[in-house]
Amino acid sequence: MTEIALGAHVEQTDPIAQARARRAPHVQFFLGDPQGYKGPEIRYAGGAAALRADAEQAGVGLYVHAPYIVNVATTNNRIRIPSRKLLQQHLDAAAEIGALGLIVHGGHVNAADDPAVGFDNWRKAVEATDLKIPLLIENTAGGDNAMARYLDRIKGVFDAVAAAAGSEDVGFCLDTCHAHAGGIALESVVDDVRAVTGRIDLVHCNDSRDEFDSGADRHANVGAGRIDPDLLAQVVREAGAPVVFETPGGATEHLADFAAVRSRL
Q: What kind and span of H or E run contains 88?
């Protein structure tokens, strides 16, 4: 098989240096505050144009993670409308730096809401957004009325999005910690997800500090959590997509995580 590209989530000031420290072909990072509505911020010394040019010259692929607070599914206008605006801002900024994709969480609706409203809000968001680069919806670990915790909900989102203009630019990011903590069996997750989305564009390879179906989103380094490292490697192998580790630590810890998975592929 062709070698699967392994990268990591890194600090955003100099992602190229971070990639080199990990000997990684790509990295993922935030643009600005992951918990704020303020909008994207390019912290690279030369700005967006320099980051794009330097990354291309270095042969480093860039992925951007949207802020955690983006929730385009919600029925709450005071969250949904700013979320759509923030999503567009991050897509624009990610496109400026030549990013390979923008990863965004699936969001949720309120406890009493019909999830079908959330699915349709996803369709409307895709229709209203200029997808200059691929938008990768990520499965999440917790929440009973989450849009992307359970397979049936992920199917609902992708079925709804399929009706939107631009749906070909919407992909899927599979997070192993979130699947485990969210109650999706990793033994069959790749086939199960592909059956409902048709694709896996990126894998977040993370061990989980908590038990299966705990609903807790707490990542661990490979072998330090509750997921068998062989199972993590199986998911990576079967998905065949680029991989980002969002595990604790810096380059040393990430290189150890890469080695632990690569030795099992």
A: helix 77-96
